[in-house]
Amino acid sequence: MTALAPDPALLDRRAQVRAFMEEHVYPNEPALAREDDAADALMQELRAQAKAAGIWAPHLPAEAGGTGSGFLEYALLNEEIGRSTWAQLVFNCQAPDAGNGEILHLFGTEEQKERFLRPLVEGTARSFFSMTEPEVSGADPTALRTTAVLDGDEWVIDGHKWFSSSAEGAAFGIVMAVTDPDAEPHRRMSQILVPTDTPGYELIRAIPVLGHAGRGWSTHCEVRYTGVRVPRDNVLGEPGDGFRIAQKRLGPGRIHHVMRWLGQMQRAFELMCSYALEREVGGGPLADRQTVQNWIADSAAEIQACRLLTLDAARKLDEGGEARVEVSLIKFYAARVLNEVIDRAVQVHGARGLTDETPLGHMYAMARAARIYDGPDEVHKMVVSRRILKEFADGGTYRFD
Ligand SMILES: Cc1cc2nc3c(=O)[nH]c(=O)nc-3n(C[C@H](O)[C@H](O)[C@H](O)COP(=O)(O)OP(=O)(O)OC[C@H]3O[C@@H](n4cnc5c(N)ncnc54)[C@H](O)[C@@H]3O)c2cc1C
Predict the structure, then answer these.
(1) For the whole prediction, is pTM greater than 0.85?
(2) CA torsion angle for 82, 87, 93, 97 (degrees, to 10)?
(3) Of the candidate ranges 187-196, 243-252, 253-262, the one whose mean pLDDT is the lowest
(4) Protein residue closest via CA to atom 44 of ligand 1
């Protein structure tokens, strides 16, 4: 299978996901978006249907309890799943559980996998990733202040975090904490598993984001750890491995986001094209206006560029590389295209684009955060340019292969 010529079995699987989306997800979006008790019950029903259909946890391989086989395959499936905000939860490949599941699969001990990974994959528990702190820059995690100190056979954790997405209703979090303040900066931190029923863990509030407080999975929470005690064995990998594991988590996590954005962009694009043909202004369809034609042509080119960059990065990850440049490149570029395409689609729809009569208003609000979470644009541009310039400084060149 290559990025441009997926094998027929994968195309069948993608068609199966598309049919499921059309039959079960799109018609239920308005009900799911209400985020009330009825929405929760409906979500459980849809998850059971997706599981029964064998389209479950497609980000993880069979040995970890999923149904996936690699990044390239997942990119092509996620392009369909990403079209609806809610679908990632339906197929049990939602952020942040997907990234947490991957690091537990890669770095967890057998006990950690049994206790923490298995319920995630089975869909009976959710989790969160607790790194960012309000007091210091999240873009520079070497400055994080939360500490974990060994006391006998226990870690004692103290700290204050925010934007711990999905913490409301989660069974556990993975907490980034300083465990060796005297080590070199990238060996100072560890990732520690903290069940939410541990004394000293406190969920302070769900932070409203652009006017949306969220519920359960869709929350972004402020949390505090005060003398939280967990067993020494709850550390992932070795103490000091926090950044190494974060890199493994954030690389895939970023490309998972981008794959979903591809779905969002394409949906916005389709809405823009259909409405441009349908809406009459000044005696003819909007589609006859050159400004609109430019938006459509620019969007088509940019979306396809994002797809190809994503498939290229996915292939390199499948081949065992870290694809650091490729992942950073696609993270900032796709975040911009996502925002621009949705913005153009809203503009073509006029006032209707801001109402709940189309999915565009919700998509627009969600898209803005893409330029900030998992590293702001500026940091990814810095990573890309530093790596490219280093090649030149070392007497080499940068190859686009
Ligand atoms: C919707 C959402 C969900 C999130 N979910 C999670 C989560 O689940 N877990 C978690 O731990 N965190 C989460 N975050 C937090 C996110 O990862 C951080 O917001 C991000 O890393 C930036 O950190 P900061 O907000 O502290 O901004 P800062 O680090 O204070 O940066 C502020 C701004 O400064 C600029 N800047 C920063 N560094 C540089 C640089 N080197 N060069 C030039 N300009 C720079 C950028 O424009 C940046 O936007 C989430 C954020 C959002 C919006």
Answers:
(1) yes
(2) 100
(3) 243-252
(4) 378
